[in-house]
Amino acid sequence: MGFLDRLRKKAPSAPPASKADRGLLVFENTSEVIRAEKALKAAGFPVKVVGPPPEVRRGCDLAVEYPLIEGLNILRLLTDSGAPPLDAIPVTGPLLTPVDLYHVKDFGEYLMVRAANMKITVEKATGVIVNVSGGGCPDVPYLAARLIGLRLDEAPSPREVGHTLCGYALGLAFEEMQRRCSR
Questions:
Q1: DSSP secondary structure letter of residue 59
Q2: How many alpha carbons fall within 13 Å on the CB side of residue 182?
């Protein structure tokens, strides 16, 4: 690169997406997060399970990200359904930004997605699940046996088949893998 090239202005990059219109629902335990997510999605609210930043964590390593504008309706629905959060916190700065639960690793022929402590690996060319690992829950071997060897589009959702936190986390990884492989 020449001297003049260095002086030329570069196109401005897009600013980071703001989360100022989002909030976090903090819960005591994972089963409450799962119950709240299910109720909110069933009611049509655009929510997402995320990792809460350490500053707001209260006992559970998961939180529900929600649109602030719907806060009152969401809190009313959760209270009425017996799943009220410990706290509802607006995401007002970078220190309160939720932590992404997904980690993706591309191994060339294979793609692995990890959500929390559960991993699923797929052969990219065929969409066949080649490995399921992680966690320490008793249903992990069962989940692996049900999924390995099936294509993503024919495999059952681990959320429906599993009954533990590991099944839930594997379900998140499975759904993220489906999104990535459908592009």
A1: S
A2: 8
Residue 76: exposure state from Cβ atoms within 10 A (0-12, 13-18, ≥19): exposed
Nearest to 30 by CA among 4, 59, 5: 59
CB 50 within 8 A of CB 62: yes
What is the spatial distance between Cα 171 and Cα 167, in angstroms, rounded to a whole number? 6
Give the residue ranges of DSSP H helices in 8-152. 30-42, 71-80, 140-147
Sequence-ordered strand ranges (E) for the chain: 22-26, 48-50, 63-67, 87-90, 102-106, 110-115, 118-123, 128-134
- The per-residue pLDDT string of the chain (183 residues; one tens digit each, 9 = 90 and over) reads 444 444 444 444 433 444 568 899 999 888 888 899 999 999 999 999 888 887 777 766 788 999 999 999 999 999 999 989 999 988 876 555 566 678 899 999 999 999 888 999 999 999 999 999 988 888 899 999 999 999 999 999 998 888 788 888 899 999 999 999 987
Q: How far apart, in whole angstroms, are the C-alpha atoms of residue 103 and residue 112?
A: 8
